[in-house]
Amino acid sequence: MEDILQQVKESAEKQILFLPHALRQMSRLDRMITTQEVRETVMTGELIEDYPEDARGHSCLLLKSIETDRIIHVVCAPKPEYLAIITAYIPIGSQWTNNFKERL
After folding, report:
1. Which of 27, 77, 100, 102, CA to CA, is 20 to 30 A from 47?
2. pLDDT of residue 1
3. Domains parsed from the chain with CATH numbers
4. Per-residue pLDDT reduced to its tens digit, 24-54
């Protein structure tokens, strides 16, 4: 799983592409996730799920506790030229255990 995390960081250093779904989810009034928060998550977040067989290409779920005292999840897929941000959201406590790292 560390290989995908390295690919994420390398792709993010080149360019980050926010897919339309990600932008819609980030801009919801109950979320208001900034591009900087997403960037911080992909560069320093924790890998909690790996999706090597995803139809969009190898992707993963990252978690980061942001300085604003909230947890952010980001699903992204590294590509040779860029990092695709598939979605970003604030996880709901009733759907996760172990500090938002494991699904119920």
Report:
1. 27
2. 60
3. 2-91 (3.30.2310)
4. 999 999 999 999 999 999 999 999 999 999 9
Determine the Cα angle at 83 with ends 82 and 85, to 5°.
140
pLDDT reading at 10 higher than 70: yes
Q: Which residues pair with 12 in a beta bridge?
A: none
Pick from 45, 82, 47: nearest CA to 64: 45
DSSP assigned state of 28 = S
pTM for the predicted model, two decimal places: 0.93
Q: Which amino acid is at 79?
A: K
Distance CA(104)–CA(100), nearest Å, equals: 10
